[in-house]
Structure formats: C-alpha cells, structure tokens
Amino acid sequence: MSLSNILGTAVSGLSASQAGIRSVSNNIANIGTPGYARERVSLTTGVTQGRVNGVVIGEPSRIADRFLEQTVYLRAGDMGRAEVTANYMDRLQAFLGAPGAESGLPARLDAISASAIALTSGRSAPQNASSFVAEVQDAIGSIRQLDDDIQVLRGDVESEVGYSIETVNDLLERIHGLNATVAQLRGLGRTAGGAEDQRMSALEELSGLMKVSIREQPDGRVNIDSATGAVLLDGRLRQLSYPSPGNGVAQPTYPVIDIRFTNDAGEPTTATGEKLDSSAIGGKLGGLLDLRDRALPEFSDQLGSLFGGLAETINAVANSGTAVPPPNRLDGGPSGLIGSDRLGFTGQATFAVTDKSGVLVASTTVDFDALGPLATVDDAIAAINGGLAGDASATLVDGRLSFVAANGSNGVAIAQGTPPSERAGNGFSHYFGLNDVIRSDSATLVAPGFVASDPHGFGAGQSAQLVLRDATGRSLATTTLTGSLGSTIGDLVTELDQSPLGAFGDFALDDRGRVTFTPKPGASGSALSIPADSTDRFGTGVSFTALSGLTGSASGLGQGSVRSDVLASADRLPLSRLRTDAAVGESALGGGDTRVAGAFVEALGKSIDFGKAGSATVERFSSLLMGRAGTQAARAQDMLIDAAARRDDAVNRRDSFSGVNLDEELSQMVVLQNSYSAAARVMTTATQMYDTLLDMVR
Questions:
Q1: Phi (first) and psi of residue 366, to 5 degrees
Q2: CA distance 349 to 119
Q3: How far apart are CA 618 and CA 190, in angstroms?
C-alpha cells in the first residue's frame, strides 16, 4: 500500500469518527425530545480494484421498529377512547351525587312514599296534602334536572367532536407535508430521520383521536386508513367535513362525518363517498360519538321511563278518586284517539254530578262490555251524555276528553265500577287522564292499548326515523317508517319487520298495545332510538314515538309537572272516592275519606310495568338506574387505568429500542474518540514517513 493510500484510509477513518460523534451528539442533545428515534451512521467498507481502501460514510439511519410503533398507535387509540369516556362518565356521576345522599333521586322518591303515609292520617290533612304534592313536584324536578344535565353533557361532547375533527384535519395535513419531505429526501439518498420523527409524533397523536391503519410505501410515504376502512391519506390529501348543527347544543340527530378530497390549497372539495358515522372509528373521536349517540341518550331514555312510571303509578290512584268539593270540569291529556276509534274498554265506570257539598245530582254507570266489541269512543261518549241527561257532558276534541258539569256550581266525579273499566291495564278516567295529578302536554302517560287492526292515523308525508345501535354505539341499521304497507298498526309492525332493522330483531305488539323490539342473538345489547318523528295520529298531536313505547324519550318529562290547580291548592288533590251506591239527593262524597291516600301508599310499594325497562317499584327502578350509572363510571375508570398501562408499556418498549440511552451513547463516544485518535496517529505516522523520504531525496 502506498503512502497516499495510507493517508486516504486514515482520512476516511477520521471522517467516519467525526460523523459518528456528530450522531452521538445529536442523540444526547435529543435525549428528552418526545418522539425522537436515535440515529447511527451507516458505514461500509471502501473497496478499490478489489482491495479494501478505507471506509465509506453513508447517511445517518434512524433506529426504529415499525411493529413497535404500530403497537403504540393501536394502544393510543384505546387510550383516547377510554380517557374521554371516563371523563364524561365521571361528570355524569357527579351530577347524580353520592349514593344514599338525601338530595339523591331515590331519597326524593322515598319521600313521596313517606308523605303518602302521612296522608292516611286525618290529622293535619291540609299540611300533609301540601307535603305530598311538594314531594311529587320535587321528584319530577330532580328527574328533569338530571335530564337537563345530560343534555348539557351531550352539548359538551358535540363541541369536543367538532374540535377533535379540526385537530384530525390539521394532523392529516401535517403528515401529508411530512410525507412529501421524506419521499424527497430518500429520493436524493439523504437521511429523513428528522421528518420521520415528526411524522411519528403526528401519527401517534392522530391515532389517539381515532384508530388508524398505517401502511408504509416504498418511497417512504405512509398511507392512512380509518378503522372502518375509509381512506384518509394516500398520495392525495383528504379532510374530514362536519357541519356541526348546534355549536355544542344537544340535537335529536347529527350529521355524519364526510371525507372530502382537497385542492392545492388544502381546502375540502368533492366528497369521496366515504363517511365516518359511528363510534367504530375508535379513539377519542369514537368515544365521543358513543357517548353522544348511545351512552348519554340511553341514560336519558331511562330517566324518561322513570318519569313515565312515576306518573302512571300516581295517576292511576288519583283517577280512582276525586277532590271534595269536586271540580266543575275534568280535562284530559293527549290520548291519540279520535271518536271513530275502537273503544277497547271492558268493565264499568260511573260518571256523577254532585253539588259543592257532595250531594249527588245525577249519575250513570256505563257498561262498556254491553256496548259491544265494535263500539267506538263516540259510542262511549254518547252513553255518558245520554245517561246524565244534560246535567253534564263529555266531549272529545283533538284526542283530549273533557267531562263538564252543565251547572257552574256543580262538580263532576268518576269512579270505577264492578268490574272496573279497563283498557291496557288503565281505567277509563286514567286512560284519558281526566283526573291526573301529573300532567304533560307533550305525551300520553299510559300504554295505548292498540291492537293490530287499529288504524295508525299517519298523514301524507309523515314519517319516523328509527336507528338501531349495538352496545358500542355503532349504527347497525336505519329505517324510515312511513306506513307505506297499509293503514293499520299491524301494518306498521310488518313494515318494521321487513325493514333493515328486521335483520337484527323482531317487532311485535305486547298485551298493552305497545310496540316491542326483541334483538336476535347476534344483536344482543342493541338499542333503538327515534331521532326524528313527524307523525301525528289523526291530527291529535300524538306521534308514533309517544304511542309505540319503544323509547323513553317521548315520556313527556320535559313538560312534566304536577297539575297546576293542585300545585296552587293541595285541597284539589283527589283523596276521596265517589259512593257509587248513593241515590240522587244523598251524599256521595264526604270529607275525611282517606281511601285514596292509602291507595297511594300501596301503589308506590308495588312493582309496575316500565315497558322495555322491565318491572320494579319506582324507588327500586331509580336505585337501579343510579347504580347502573355508578357501575359504568367505575368500569370506565378501570378501562382507563388498563388502557393507560397498555399504552405506557407499548411506548416503553418502543423507546427502549429507539430511544436514547445515555450510557450507551457515552460508551459509543469513547469508542469513536479512540478511533479518531488512532486514525490521527496513522496520519501522523504517514506524514513522518513522507518527511523521511523527502530528506533522503535531498
């Protein structure tokens, strides 16, 4: 080997050591930089004419394991979803209060029972009645406040959905730009470690917002797909488009998230045809959609069922009694029925007129069985009016029944007969809400008692949208119910069974005339919602949602309240019962009658039918509801702890491979320092040999 070759080899050794020290310096400087993957200089043996000739220095390479990075991305998505779920469930739990708290909902309902017991005593009756009315109103207010709180949470979730989508778009744009940088640098044969580090950090943040599938391309770019298979990024940038409808306000329905191509300026243009419409997208965004579309509405639905159960329990008893003196008129709530509808009542009911002192003026007992199976609501009204011979009259207007005494100084009262009147488990007065203590102008408060042959009463162009979601909040099927198969309730059930929903369960009418949905084994845990409903049965103002009983969202909770006259004066509380055996001129009502008060106590202690929510006492149902929320909050915290541990483990494994180890870098620096010194010594020796040769020549 010539001296020049020796010098060249030594120079290459010096350069290699310098390059190595430069990489070590970069590694040590970035020891605390998140997402930094250490680099190492690429060295290969220099070969000239088949002989080793120094070392060839390549571009620094990034030390990374793609599989470990993919694991971090996956675990980040689980962590994002668990974190947002735990946060909002914790807020929900805070609204509910501590178990057993005096201000809690079960305690409020228990107070109703206690005040009902006090009603059974004749002592301090006015005060006891006022206390009962106040406790009922407070319980309704508590239920409604909880529902309002849930709507606030849904609004906050919706705001966070919009913010998360903006963040996703920013990250996709950043990754797209870094893709171009990486591809360009690799094409020039240069290292792209810095751009790849930045891209990895952006990908990790993106995967926390939504689960993604990342595929590296030969030129160094990455393609990104959503967990549902929608393309988010390939050679062309895409953006998520979401027209938020309410700026953080809870809505009946929400638009889907569109995916759109972008122009050169990065602005969304035409839609790709792919959408993100369920929590299956995973990550924080998936968790938010699940909370917004399933978890929180489900709890709100249960609150509606609780209100409906409380109203049915109290109203059933109230409609068996009357106030003393009786009111001049009784005005019912929305029933959804019109005069030509099938009557559907069995048994008997007595309709009476008394003076202010309770002396009977007139009465008639209507035997609904005797009217026959083809009897209509109009037939029952005619029987009432005919029996009272002008002393009082019943009328049905827009689905609301009224019973009014002709003489303004008289009052009206209704009592169950023997056997008692009944339709779908409701007495005549109760079905029409004539003496309800709890009212809501937005919904019926009883089971409808429909049979398959009853007309559905939809008007032209009216429809109801039904959505079925699985236990994760993913939309399984959607249909729009129009009544297109026929004019009856049975036709509606058939239409639902033949819709896409029918693939996941069976629809039927139960024995109280409500529409039921029984999920098939593969769809267990799924839940129906009716986000949009424009139906109006025969113009009565009552929708399919209200009549079907498929959800608790149409319970009337939003407008639920103790009847205004009872709130104003507790002596309007119907605590007495009409004597059906009294003759005209005899006392049919008397003060001090506590039979209805005792019935309140008995009814509140009985298990009642909550429809799809099962059967329980009102207080038990509320306790189960609160307990379920607490359990879900605790489970969400456990899932967060587990997801955080799994994410941290994945990050530690990635960083143990790619991250900077100070001891390792210092050891490498010593090696490079010695290598540099040795190469320098070779150069010094070669220089001395040159000098010796020159001296010999001289």
A1: -100, 125
A2: 26
A3: 72
Quote the pLDDT of residue 364: 96
Question: How far is the C-alpha of 78 from the C-alpha of 567, rounded, in Å?
Answer: 51
Distances (CA, A) of 466 to 284, 479, 527, 644: 26, 5, 10, 36
Indicate the pLDDT class of residue 245, thresholds 50, 70 and 90. low
Rounded mean pLDDT of 397-425? Answer: 95
Q: Is the pLDDT score of 246 beyond 60?
A: no
d(CA 80, CA 89): 14
Instruction: Determine the 3-state secondary structure of 246 from DSSP.
Output: coil
Rounded mean pLDDT of 117-138?
A: 82
pLDDT at 350: 97
Q: How far apart are CA 428 and CA 92, in angstroms?
A: 40
Residue 562, both tokens: 């103790």
Whether the CB-CB separation of 536 and 546 falls below 8 Å is answered with: no
State the pLDDT confidence band at 528, using cuts at 50, 70 and 90.
confident
**CB-based burial, 32-42: b 16+ in 10 Å, e otherwise:** eeebbbbbebe
**What mean pLDDT value characterizes the chain?**
87
Domain ranges of the chain: 3-63+659-697, 464-548
CA pair distance 473, 313, nearest whole angstrom: 32
The sign of the dihedral angle between the CA atoms of 248, 253, 257, 260 is negative
pLDDT of residue 493: 96
pLDDT band at 248 (very low <50, low <70, confident <90, very high): low
CB atoms within 10 A of CB 370: 9
Rounded to an integer, what distance in angstroms lies between the CA atom of residue 191 and that of residue 195?
Answer: 9
39 pLDDT above the threshold of 60:
yes
pLDDT in tens, 660-670: 778 777 887 88
193 and 30 in contact (C-beta within 8 Å)?
no
d(CA 448, CA 399): 12
State how beta strands 238-241 and 527-533 pair: unpaired
Q: Is the pLDDT of residue 44 over 90?
A: no
Sequence-ordered strand ranges (E) for 124-256? 212-216, 222-226, 231-233, 238-241
Measure the N-to-C terminal CA separation of the chain; round to a whole number of Å. 24
| Alpha carbon distance 100, 172 (integer Å) | 48
Cβ contact 389:326 at 8 Å: no
Pick from 50, 18, 276, 254: nearest CA to 169: 276
- The answer, yes or no, to whether residue 33 has pLDDT greater than 90, is no
Which residues make beta-bridge pairs with 481? 464
160: Cα separation from own chain's centroid: 14
Backbone angles phi, psi at 345, to 5 degrees: -100, 145
Task: Answer for the pair 632, 2: CB distance below 8 angstroms, yes or no.
Answer: no
Helix (H, G, I), strand (E, B) or coil at 393: strand
- Residue 207: its pLDDT value, please? 94
CA distance 60 to 37: 12
Choose between 695 and 479: higher pLDDT.
Answer: 479
Q: CA-to-CA distance for 629 and 621, rounded, in angstroms? A: 12
Give me the residue label for tokens 């946060």.
87
